[in-house]
């Protein structure tokens, strides 16, 4: 009898240790929501809407939708939709044919806003070459100030899993990626391949700007001349860690205004990495509804102050922000 009980205790302890070591990997590669970050509000619904927050589009219940801040907008060329508008985290922005631009008005509420999360006007800055006067906002029923571009309300799409995805293009014959000027994006709607190539060449030559390789994985390794091997994202931008975060229990100390300067790294599939440790490679379900990639259970960020691939302007900022090694360690930190 004692032998059976002892064996049972050993197996239970081993199971707990495995769960802790895996940092939530037994939950489909996602850290369990009940063990990470700040506690969710009482009665909060289960995670949904493709990873953009459980309270997106909670219309009718009196709760304010957790809209994603627009941040620094950019224009990105895509094969599927031509030149599209992206938010500060690199996600494609969309417009809805059932909305109106004059006057600006959204027809996407409730369940619709779960599939098409609202983009708030917070911190919105126009892409290079786009008139700032095109940017505006419209007040939604819940009080959210939704970003508008040339009058059209802006959204993300819940099924866009990572920056660069354009899975919402043409959905229902009413949803389209937005061009930088607020019009519908479509292949060939940008500056044209020849003009785009010339512009890229000029930008690459300007001030010695370093162009990102065209075939980078979602996360990979770059050999920096000063820092050695560091992690970079698909665009070649340096990835950072915040010393005030913790890995287990997984918590973030970067919220609100902090995220304008330090956007989270969106989830990246393991098979879309190169040279990166997969130990503790899980998705962090943040209390603010965002999903964030981790290495060795540490949340990852980029820095808004880095303007081009190869920049490491975030290194050592405040004595708490550091580039990340392929194993998820801090590069250059004293401890």
Describe this structure in words.
There is one protein chain. The protein is of the alpha+beta class and 335 residues long. It folds into 2 domains: 55-177, no CATH class; 214-331, no CATH class. It is built from 4 helices and 21 strands. The chain has helices at residues 2-22, 111-115, 193-205, 258-261; strands at 68-69, 74-78, 82-86, 94-96, 100-101, 104-105, 119-120, 135-139, 145-149, 152-153, 175-177, 219-224, 228-233, 240-242, 246-247, 250-251, 283-285, 291-295, 298-299, 321-324, 330-331. The strands form 9 sheets. It has a 3-stranded antiparallel beta sheet, with no helix packed on it. Strands 14-20-21 form a 3-stranded antiparallel beta sheet, with no helix packed on it. It is globular and about 55 Å long. Residues 7-21, 24-28, 32-65 and 189-209 have low confidence and may be disordered.
């Amino acid at each position: 009898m004692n032998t059976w009980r002892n064996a049972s205790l050993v197996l239970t302890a081993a199971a707990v240790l495995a769960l802790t070591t895996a940092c939530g990997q037994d939950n489909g590669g996602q850290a369990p929501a009940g063990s990470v970050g700040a506690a969710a509000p009482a009665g909060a619904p289960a995670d949904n809407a493709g990873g953009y927050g459980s309270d997106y589009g909670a219309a009718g219940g009196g709760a304010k939708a957790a809209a994603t801040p627009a941040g620094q907008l950019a224009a990105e060329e895509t094969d599927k939709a031509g030149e599209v508008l992206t938010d500060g985290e690199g996600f494609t922005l969309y417009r809805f044919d059932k909305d109106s631009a004059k006057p600006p008005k959204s027809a996407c509420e409730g369940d619709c806003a779960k599939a098409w999360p609202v983009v708030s006007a917070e911190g919105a800055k126009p892409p290079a070459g786009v008139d700032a006067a095109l940017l505006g906002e419209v007040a939604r029923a819940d009080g959210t100030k939704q970003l508008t571009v040339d009058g059209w309300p802006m959204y993300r799409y819940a099924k866009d899993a990572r920056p660069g995805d354009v899975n919402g293009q043409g959905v229902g014959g009413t949803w389209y990626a937005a061009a930088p000027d607020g019009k519908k994006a479509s292949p060939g709607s940008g500056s044209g391949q020849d003009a785009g190539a010339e512009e890229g060449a000029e930008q690459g030559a300007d001030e010695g700007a370093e162009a990102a390789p065209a075939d980078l994985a979602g996360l990979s390794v770059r050999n920096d001349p000063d820092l050695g091997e560091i992690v970079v994202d698909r665009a070649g931008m340096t990835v950072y860690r915040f010393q005030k975060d913790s890995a287990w229990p997984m918590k973030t100390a970067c919220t609100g205004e902090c995220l304008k300067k330090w956007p989270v790294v969106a989830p990246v599939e393991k098979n879309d990495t190169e040279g990166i440790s997969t130990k503790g490679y899980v998705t962090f379900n943040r209390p603010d509804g965002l999903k964030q990639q981790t290495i060795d259970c540490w949340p990852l960020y980029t820095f808004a102050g880095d303007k081009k691939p190869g920049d490491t302007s975030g290194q050592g900022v405040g004595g708490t922000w550091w580039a990340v090694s392929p194993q998820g360690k801090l590069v250059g930190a004293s401890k």
